[in-house]
Amino acid sequence: MNLILQATHDIPSAQVEHLARLSSAARIEQVATHLYRLTEAKLHAEIAAYCFEHRIDYGFVPRNKRLSDFGLVVMDMDSTLISIECIDEIADMQGLKPQVAAITESAMRGEIEFAESLRRRVALLEGLDEAALQRVYDERLQLNPGAEIMLAQLKQHGVRTLLVSGGFVFFTDRLKTRLGLDFTHANTLEIVDGKLTGKVSGKIVDAQGKADWLNHVREELGLKPEQVIAMGDGANDLKMMAQAGVSIAYHAKPVVREQASYALNFVGLDGLVNLLGN
Asked: InterPro entries attached here (predicted)?
């Protein structure tokens, strides 16, 4: 295995050398400014806590594993591909952000079933002018750091992309066009006479819906589960992530970090490329 170390800062040589000793690595290779590869490394119980304490993201990666081995990357949208929770920002237009954000956080921790939490949150938006959605997109929606680097590398390696979200089609459709994503799937807010009704149209995309859509696209592309990477941050991403050969917890809740193949706690989305790049 290679032990990949990456951070948003210079990693002191003493820390790299300490991790090399812990992992009995054969060699230390500095790949980039904040990126190291420790070859022929072995698992050690102290590595996880040491890296977290020093704000280093790490991953044990089979030395022959490459980004080009995969055919599909499936991403959550809110707080994964983008930096905001769209529904919280929509609620802010109604002066209801604290109430909605509290329900969002509870759902992401797995304390409330997602579909029920979404119904509760959307109900609070009843009567809001649909123009508020465009304002959120124009004024508040930002990609998370490293997103464009990651997407460019995926395209270069012929890896397809699926954005699947418990959020809303209004945003996924615009991101699909803007970023050149291959597939998107999300919920549709019901709008009548230019106003949100407080309801979601059709079947809610919940945790199982995300997993089902991953498998639908995977089968359409003729891929095996081990050729899929799934990325998410909240409890409603866990079923989807369990269907992928590699799962990435991105700045995620503890319950997600514990179950993922790898956790990116500090670096940007391009950390995926650093883990699995040549």
From this structure: DUF4072 (IPR025138), HAD-like_SerB (IPR050582), HAD-like_sf (IPR036412), HAD_sf (IPR023214), PSP (IPR004469)
